[in-house]
Every structure is written in structure tokens, then in C-alpha cells.
Amino acid sequence: MSDVIELTGVWRTYPGGVTAVRSVDLTVAYGELVAIVGPSGSGKSTMLHLIGTLDRPSQGSVRIDGYDVATLSDRQLSALRARRIGFVFQQFHLAPGRDAVANVADGLLYAGVARKEREWRAEAALVRVGLGDRLTHRPHQLSGGERQRVAIARAVAGDPAVLLADEPTGNLDSVSGAGVVELLRELNSAGTTVLVITHDHAIADGLPRQVPMRDGEVV
């Protein structure tokens, strides 16, 4: 099995007849680093939801890590997300009263990992993203770039098959943003499959593969 993501003839139409994604074919192999790039309204956020199994296609087939999304129950989809997909969002979504280790460890709750192992994996993930000296810091004690690194650590702590990063530099200054992109490159070099969803062509141009979208289609 060489492809972690396989979309075949995928459409997504919402109530009212709004088609956000139309006739998309896309494969992403294990170990790739890919940018899905396009302006607002191009369909890239819907692609994120389809690939992340947060939404189901109206037509076509979505296979993630070998699993056909259409054949899975909601419970099975939740388990697939918890164990095989890591998410990083523009908003960091960190709990303000929890330190970095706890924020990362909490991301493993739904994967059924025991508490001690959650903490061990969280610390290891934070060291991996360069925050070994910030383990007990809470979000308000961290810079924007550091908060995004905590969010990335949370996403990779469970060793997902694919990491989906949605506008990961959107809330960061240029220096912090460049650091986050470089971190994603390092994670990819170590074997993680990474998809970056972005409207920023400067970011996309620096990645090995681009999937441009416009009006719901891959162009």
C-alpha cells in the first residue's frame, strides 16, 4: 500500500445546492509533503474536512490509510481520526490553564492511551519540536510560534499516518511562520506525511508538491 490518501471522483454538495468540491481525483503517497493551495472559496477547507474524515463525500470515494470512509460508522471514523490523523489549525486550540505537557497529552485521550504513556509521549513530542525547556509552561507564557509548536507536538504525539496543517502560519509573524514551516519539513524528513492547506503561495512554492485548487476543482 503506497498511498495514504486516495480521492476518486469526489464531490461535496451542501444543502441548498452549493457544491464546494467537484470531481476531485487526488493521491498522496506515504512520506510526501504537499501543499493544497488556493484562494478563499476554492474548496481547500472542504478538502481538509474530507481528508480528515470530518465530512463525507456526496459522491466518489475517499480512502485514508487504506480505509474506505464510506464503509465506516461514525464511531469507527472517530477512532480512525484519533489514531491515524493529526490536525494543526490556525487557531492553536490550547487549554489556557494546562501546561504544554498536559495540552499535548490530552490529545491522546481519544486514542485510548494510558495516562503515564500519554505523559511520556507528550514530553517526547515536545522535545521533538524543540520545546524541551518549555514543558511546564502554560500557553500565556509562550510566544505564538511556541504555541503553534505545542499544537504540532499534540498532532504528532500519536504517530499519525498523516498530519493535516490548516493555515498553520496564519496567526504568526513571518519569522515564527518560517520556523513552523521548517519544523513541518523536519517532521516530513523523519517520515511523517504532511499536507499543508494554505492560501499563501510563498509557503506553497517552497514545498515539494503543490495541489492548486480553484472553484472546487484541482487545476
UniProtKB/TrEMBL annotation:
<dbReference type="InterPro" id="IPR003593">
    <property type="entry name" value="AAA+_ATPase"/>
</dbReference>
<keyword id="KW-0813">Transport</keyword>
<dbReference type="GO" id="GO:0005524">
    <property type="term" value="F:ATP binding"/>
</dbReference>
<dbReference type="Pfam" id="PF00005">
    <property type="entry name" value="ABC_tran"/>
</dbReference>
<keyword id="KW-0067">ATP-binding</keyword>
<dbReference type="InterPro" id="IPR003439">
    <property type="entry name" value="ABC_transporter-like_ATP-bd"/>
</dbReference>
<feature type="domain" description="ABC transporter">
    <location>
        <begin position="5"/>
        <end position="219"/>
    </location>
</feature>
<dbReference type="InterPro" id="IPR017911">
    <property type="entry name" value="MacB-like_ATP-bd"/>
</dbReference>
<dbReference type="InterPro" id="IPR017871">
    <property type="entry name" value="ABC_transporter-like_CS"/>
</dbReference>
<dbReference type="GO" id="GO:0022857">
    <property type="term" value="F:transmembrane transporter activity"/>
</dbReference>
<dbReference type="GO" id="GO:0098796">
    <property type="term" value="C:membrane protein complex"/>
</dbReference>
<dbReference type="InterPro" id="IPR027417">
    <property type="entry name" value="P-loop_NTPase"/>
</dbReference>
<protein>
    <submittedName>
        <fullName>Peptide ABC transporter ATP-binding protein</fullName>
    </submittedName>
</protein>
<keyword id="KW-0547">Nucleotide-binding</keyword>
<dbReference type="GO" id="GO:0016887">
    <property type="term" value="F:ATP hydrolysis activity"/>
</dbReference>
<dbReference type="InterPro" id="IPR015854">
    <property type="entry name" value="ABC_transpr_LolD-like"/>
</dbReference>
<dbReference type="GO" id="GO:0005886">
    <property type="term" value="C:plasma membrane"/>
</dbReference>
